[in-house]
Amino acid sequence: MAGHAVEHDYHLIPPSPWPFLSGIAALVWGVGMVVFFAGLVPRTGESPMLEFFFSKGLDSLQDSYRAAGDKVGADGGWIILVVGTLFAAYVMYGWWKDVAAESKAGDHTPVVDIGLRYGMIMFIMQEAMFFVGWFWMFFELGLFHKMRAAWNPDVLENADEYATSMAPGIKGVDPWNLPLMNTVILLLSGTTVTWAHHALIHGDRRGAKWGLGLTVLLGILFTFVQGYEYLELFHERTEGHPWISTDAFGSAFFMATGFHGLHVLIGTIFLAIMYLRLVKGGLRPEKHFGLEAAAWYWHFVDVVWLFLFAFVYIIFAVGM
Amino acid sequence: MVAIPESEVPAEGGYDDDGKPGFFARWFYSTNHKDIGTLYLIFGIISGLIGGFLSFMMRMELAEPGIQFFTNEHQYLVYVSMHGLIMIFFMVMPALIGGFGNWFVPIMVGAPDMAFPRMNNLSFWLLPTALICLLISFVVPGNANGNGFGGSWVMYPPLSTTGHPGPAFDFIIIGLLAAGFSSIFGAINFITTILNMRAPGMTMHKMPLFAWAVLVTAFLLLLALPVLAAALFMLFTDRIAGGTGFFDPARGGDPQMFQHLFWFFGHPEVYIMILPAFGIVSHIVSTFSKKPIFGYLGMAYAMVAIGVVGFVVWAHHMYTVGMDVNLKAYFLAATLVIAVPTGVKIFSWLATMWGGSIRFTIPMQWALAFIFLFVVGGVTGVMLANAGVDAYLHDTYYVVAHFHYVLSMGAVFGIFAGFYYWFGKMFGVMYNKFLAAAHFWLFFIGVNVIFFPQHFLGLNGMPRRYVDYPEEFAIWNSVSSMGAWITLAGVAFFFAMLIEAFIVRRRVGDNYWGEGATTLEWTLSSPPPYHQFNTLPRIEDNAEH
Ligand code: HEM
Ligand SMILES: [Cu+2]
User: Fold this and answer.
1) Distance between CA B462 and CA B142 in Å, rounded?
2) Which of A30, A47, A151 minimises the CB distance to B174?
3) pLDDT in tens, B333-353
4) Which of A57, A95, A133 sits opposite B261 (nearest CB)?
5) What pLDDT, on the 0 to 100 scale, is given for residue A57?
6) Mean pLDDT over residues B386-396, rounded?
7) Which amino acid residue places its CA nearest to atom 3 of ligand 1?
8) Complex ipTM, two decimals?
9) Are B214 and B194 in contact (CB under 8 A)?
10) Average pLDDT, chain A
11) Residue B77 near residue B152 (C-beta atoms within 8 A)
């Protein structure tokens, strides 16, 4: 209202270019995804159907499907994808920079701070439901393979074997090897992040830096171990056939652990940004919601891993 | 009621007096909930025109047996699929939640804006991105029969995997993911706004019913959409040659599982589309009966109950996939349970009108029509909920009639009711009553003529999603197509009404509905100032809802 002072503590934000640019970045990225994976222009062959079917593919894993020259991204999709990703990264950088500046300027009053908390909790709830989808798929595959084998004797090449195992011919990953190590890594990182948080509250910035730095390193370590495990699975476990294209179990395994891995990566970046802010003198003992949000997110990622470890690794190895 | 100092109430045209940003910044970089709400409404109208064009073409095609307009079956199916997707994700949801939710939830709870104004704009700008992806899908190859995706809005594999290997469906996946993220961010925003930014004295149990409706809707969005996102990702990777095999029985996968994931989202989705309309209708019925809503708490918690139970009934869409009979019995019973809180709502609206001094204004006409037609759709829903009956009716025009009674007459009537109710509030001008009445009556008659005969067609066994049909279905189909013309005339009056109103500009006062309108938006100017409530309103103890 004209000339009338604002008498509330809410945070009204002046116009910002980032959301609009995000929309454009999402468009570029989305088109890139489609062109990269599906292709856009028909190339050779008879029906568009066959062409499009065979112009797709994660074929670094799948060279046997077609000639190497006809790789994914032959339409130049990867260029669009990279541009989209960089664009999105730039937008996120600008956006979060604004948020950090506003936080520093004192725009995050107590009531706004509570709002941010609600927002983060809702975001994590949403992420949890996303994983519910993947676990649902996994349990369905694990629990009802007998039934499906009986329904599809003529489609399944090896219906009898499916009756006894959800993934016939697949040697499980030994859960007590690399996966156990990753479990320990994540649990340990859960404690280091809590250490960092408490150290910060007690004004021990040195301790906080150590705790947070270690957490980031453990996160990176997790990603490396998982990458190593994947490499092994791609090349060794299934006589040249990567799991992902072998059967539904491989699909569930890779997509569920893969999306978890992606979340670990996001969480690590989130923590790393908090580390940088800490080093630069940001994050005060009485007000450091960014760090708390990163820690919440990290614990969430941790819990999802425990579920993956318990069900996708252990139960499968024990036999389901 | 609400104490706002006289000096606070800005002059007419409050929009013009407080340094609003220039055109580009205002409409593209907006962080203002009212401007973003307007953008959503405009977006909804544009999508409605596209979706409406598709359905009109379908009705013209079906006016008589044989194939008249479409080049082949595939093209017809593309129109069917895109009509469903565009109307649901790009018309009803943006209009009800994005449009009215943005405009009125902050005002009703007494907040100056949404909790995260920038993220609010992100929710909006992901939608044009999504719509562009869907429109691209029209013109890129779908399968050997031509461009576009023709596997219906439910996107079941294998039609959506090996059945449409071209990039058309990949674009739809990307578009729906973008729309999904838009809604998830919107949901987070609404929940935070409602839980954290209520004005002093505005307890949850004093909050207007529209805000309650949007709160429940936001939770449904938050919990249902990520599951759809997971399912869409599965489709995306399944479609890659040598990719995953989630839905491929030859590789131990299960196509039925997609239906579970989809409907776990899909059934809450139908309530996402109707709950905000419930909220709007409650306000209108109360305003024009000049009575507070009957059984306010019951009304609020009925919506909560509908939301909760809505999550455990999904498989009533899958009675014919070969489910275990005990499962069918469970889903049958659970589905019937939803009729109870729905009944609470209907009877409370009736009780609100009972003994009230009713004014049959344009929004009230839409609201009354909503109640009447929603009951028709609800009753056919209860019919369909019976697994045995549904074995016969599933995928017939009876289902089409059912969901159009709850959607094109439920959700859409709710949208128009809200549009006319708040038209003056949002734009500061009054609509022409004659044009609005013509819109209402033509639309009301038109949609009923379209969809009522479809009950008969369905009962006679006409399956849905076919471009052609045998001679014996000809009569009711031609009647139904006649209804499309009447509806089109109604839509023409809608646009005439809009144009007239913005040319003539009959200004309205703060509370042009008078005594019955008690929520906070009626204490502000029309249109409200660019930023309302610089001093937060205080709700007194005995305030009405
Ligand atoms: C009393 C409440 C309701 C009951 C008992 C009910 C029941 C059902 C049942 C059993 C079906 C499946 C029919 C079949 O495919 O064979 C169905 C379909 C449908 N219902 Fe409802 N319904 C109710 C309310 C609603 C509402 C409020 C909406 C939306 C606003 C809605 C939208 C739909 C849609 C869109 C479909 C069709 C989905 C498709 O197959 O494309 N229903 N309903
Ligand atoms: Cu349903």
Assistant:
1) 27
2) A30
3) 999 999 999 999 999 999 999
4) A133
5) 35
6) 95
7) B381
8) 0.93
9) yes
10) 82
11) yes
Please compute, for residue A270, the number of CA atoms within 13 A of its CA located in the half-sphere on the CB side: 20
Q: Verify whether ligand 1 is closer than 6 Å to residue B399 (CB atom).
A: yes
Q: Which two tokens stand for residue B438?
A: 């013509």
Residue B232 in contact with residue B300, Cβ under 8 Å? no
Q: What's the predicted TM-score (pTM) here?
A: 0.92
Average pLDDT over residues A307-312: 93
Share of chain B above pLDDT 70, in %: 95
Q: How many residues does chain A have?
A: 320
> Would you place residue A271 in the very low, low, confident or very high pLDDT band (cuts 50, 70, 90)?
very high
Q: What is the SS3 assignment for A17?
A: coil
- With a 6 Å cutoff on the Cβ, whether B344 touches ligand 1 is no
**Distance (Å, whole) CA B413 – CA B377:** 13
Give the integer Cα–Cα distance in Å for A174 and B149: 43
**Per-residue pLDDT reduced to its tens digit, B85-108:** 999 999 999 999 999 999 999 999
8 A C-beta contact, residue B3 and residue B542: no
The span from the CA of A26 to the CA of A32, in Å, is: 10
Q: What is the pLDDT of residue A172?
A: 67
User: Rounded to 5 degrees, what are φ and ψ at B302?
Assistant: -60, -40
Q: How many residues can be counted in chain B?
A: 545
pLDDT value of residue A84: 93
By C-alpha distance, which of A249, A251, A250, A267 is closest to A304? A267
Rounded Cα gap, residues B11 and B507, in angstroms: 12
Q: Is B317 in the pocket of ligand 1 (CB under 6 A)?
A: yes
Tokens 């990703």 belong to which residue? A85
Report the distance separating Cα B489 and Cα B505, nearest Å.
24
- Which atom of ligand 1 is found nearest the CA of B319? 16
CA–CA distance, A43 with A46 (Å, rounded to integer): 10
Share of chain B above pLDDT 90, in %: 84
For residue B527, is the peptide bond before it cis, meaning its omega torsion is within 30 degrees of 0?
A: yes
Please indicate whether residue B154, judged by its CB atom, sits closer than 6 Å to ligand 1.
yes
- Closest-CA distance, B221 to chain A, in angstroms, reads 9
- C-alpha angle with apex B217: A296 to B121, nearest 5 degrees? 70
pLDDT of residue A231 exceeding 90, the answer is: no
Q: What is the 3-state secondary structure (H, E, C) of A113-142?
A: HHHHHHHHHHHHHHHHHHHHHHHHHHHHHH
Which position has the token pair 């776990």? B264
Spell out a b/e string for B455-474, using b for 16 or more CB atoms within 10 Å of the CB, else e: bbbbeeebebeebebeeebe
A208: DSSP letter? H
Contact in structure between B381 and B336 (CB atoms under 8 Å): no
Question: Residue with structure tokens 């039609």?
Answer: B159
Confidence at residue A282, expressed as pLDDT on a 0 to 100 scale: 82
Catalytic residues of B: 83, 113, 153, 182-183, 267, 269, 271, 282, 316-317, 342, 345, 464
pLDDT at B49 over 80: yes
Cα angle B228-B232-B237, degrees, rounded to a multiple of 5: 150
Instruction: Choose the residue to mutate in B384, B405, B464 for probing ligand 1, maximizing ligand atoms within 8 Å of C-beta.
Output: B384
Let me know: does B72 contact B146? Beta carbons within 8 Å.
yes
Residue contact A129–B223, C-beta within 8 A? yes
